[in-house]
Amino acid sequence: MKKKLILESGEVFHGTGFGANLDTDGEVVFNTGMTGYQELISDPSYCGQIVCMTYPLIGNYGINRDDYESIEPAIKGLIVKEVCDLPSNFRTQMDLDEFFQKKNLSGIAGIDTRKLTRILRNKGVVKGKIVNADADEAAVISELKGTNFPTNQVEMVSTKTPYAAPGRGLKVVLVDFGSKLGIIRELSQRDCDITVVSQDTTAEEILLMDPDGVMLSNGPGDPEDVPHALEMIRGILGKVPIFGICLGHQLIALACGAKTFKLKFGHRGGNHPVLDLEKNMVAITSQNHGYAVDQDSLKNTDLIETHIALNDRTNEGVKHKIHPCFSVQYHPEASPGPEDANYLFDEFIELMYQYKNVTV
């Protein structure tokens, strides 16, 4: 199944298709993770994106039942140097090609992923399309230049109806902007009584549930495309402890008067060092975001910068000066080998108990 990847900037890469035999377009980004491809494929934050894996061999441990981050993938496609058709792992249920066929996803292998990554690093993320080898390249490039991808990715991946993950501990409302199952797992391990609600839930509806804390999840796209969430955050700020992750972090910043901007090529991978400014401690983190909080814009707000990325010095965390509210840009629920960042969930638990005037 001969395929090619065409970028709107004019570059063409020839390779072999795997998964479903269909054309697919999206924003082409790269991920530096050596493992974690199943979590990546099922991460709702990749909604609308075609992901290039910089590690050359993908699929060597197959697909298993335990490593999903959502029920249905939101990713548009996958680009790899080599796709493994004979995985070796005791948990393996199927290989990557079979999984992509079952989920009607398209991938392309056999291209120079190093060259593609250098293009994305130099030019920034670009639109691209995986097509059959005989497709008219000029027509596809023209089509991509005229394509505007949806701006309602959060609405596309968020739950439509509330659901519960019961526990006997603190009651947490998780606002689903594209939440990963890892967040529910970490809260459940701490015996939280979790109610997951839709991205358009109002502050009044959340406060009516009388939660001990509110979790703002990760999610795809531009935070400025979710203006209703800012009103919700302002409505609960100071009334209940808040913990935000990734998109949730950016939304907290916007709600408090800061600004966000689009990164040239984003942070995507499981090996990003982040410095905790308060603890003077470095964590190796899992990240997936194309936008970041503008550090200069924090100066006129009630937010304090708490974390920075050591690769490019961009913002990776904030906390509120007055109210019980903090957030990070990376994914503490993910485990990119070590579990360096899990302590943030413990801090959220402690913050909720402190707010209730109860000693842990």
TrEMBL record:
Organism taxonomic ancestry: Bacteria, Pseudomonadati, Bacteroidota, Flavobacteriia, Flavobacteriales
SUPFAM superfamilies: Carbamoyl phosphate synthetase, small subunit N-terminal domain, Class I glutamine amidotransferase-like
Catalytic residues identified in the record: 246 (nucleophile), 331, 333
Biological role: Small subunit of the glutamine-dependent carbamoyl phosphate synthetase (CPSase). CPSase catalyzes the formation of carbamoyl phosphate from the ammonia moiety of glutamine, carbonate, and phosphate donated by ATP, constituting the first step of 2 biosynthetic pathways, one leading to arginine and/or urea and the other to pyrimidine nucleotides. The small subunit (glutamine amidotransferase) binds and cleaves glutamine to supply the large subunit with the substrate ammonia.
Quaternary structure, from the entry: Composed of two chains; the small (or glutamine) chain promotes the hydrolysis of glutamine to ammonia, which is used by the large (or ammonia) chain to synthesize carbamoyl phosphate. Tetramer of heterodimers (alpha,beta)4.
A Pfam family assignment: CPSase_sm_chain
BP GO terms, sorted: 'de novo' pyrimidine nucleobase biosynthetic process; 'de novo' UMP biosynthetic process; glutamine metabolic process; L-arginine biosynthetic process
Coiled coil spans: none
Broad enzyme group: ligase
Chain residue ranges for the region called CPSase: 1-170
Domain Carbamoyl-phosphate synthase small subunit N-terminal positions: 1-131
UniProt keyword terms in alphabetical order: Amino-acid biosynthesis, Arginine biosynthesis, ATP-binding, Glutamine amidotransferase, Ligase, Nucleotide-binding, Pyrimidine biosynthesis
Chain residues that bind L-glutamine: 45, 219, 221, 247, 250, 288, 290-291
Name of protein: Carbamoyl phosphate synthase small chain
Pathway(s) served: Amino-acid biosynthesis; L-arginine biosynthesis; carbamoyl phosphate from bicarbonate: step 1/1; Pyrimidine metabolism; UMP biosynthesis via de novo pathway; (S)-dihydroorotate from bicarbonate: step 1/3
